[in-house]
Write a structure and sequence with these properties.
single chain; 141 residues; alpha/beta; Glutaredoxin; 37% helix; disordered N terminus
Length: 141
């Protein structure tokens, strides 16, 4: 049922109503400066596409079990990089248009973006070593 509802949302217009504003309270105090929740398409354009720093974009959903594991793991590693990379969190139920635009067909999907371009991507859960390698490749370390 949840998967069918998610698929319907992915194929329809952005979610509206009481469910449209759920789940925006992600973040830890350590990663607050480098991690943010995307609010809308304009916010994504300003803070991700136009960012002078590399950005990791975490496409996730509240109902996604692996997302609940990957998100905090990735956030922790991004916060350790002291602002060398930013992390944008995009809830696909709230931002269906962005999920479609970036061809997200499963969650979690993580994009690595530099200068507005997608330079790397993975789908699914990764362990900390794999995430560290993904981030190091993004920042050129």
């Amino acid at each position: 049922m949840a998967q069918r509802l998610a698929l319907q949302r992915l194929l329809s217009l952005p979610a509206r109503g009481p469910l449209a504003s759920h789940g925006r309270a992600f973040g830890t105090s350590a990663g607050r400066r480098s991690t943010f929740n995307v609010q809308d398409g304009g916010d994504f354009q300003d803070r991700v596409v136009n960012s002078p720093k590399p950005v990791v974009v975490d496409f996730h959903a509240q109902w996604c079990g692996p997302c609940k594991i990957l998100g905090p793991r990735l956030e922790k590693l991004v916060s350790k990089l002291d602002g060398k990379v930013l992390m944008a969190k995009v809830d696909i139920d709230d931002h269906t248009d962005l999920a479609i635009e970036y061809e997200v067909s499963a969650v979690p999907t993580v994009l690595a973006m530099k200068n507005g371009d997608v330079v790397d991507k993975f789908v699914g859960i990764k362990d900390e070593d794999q995430l560290e390698a993904f981030l190091k490749k993004l920042i050129g370390a």
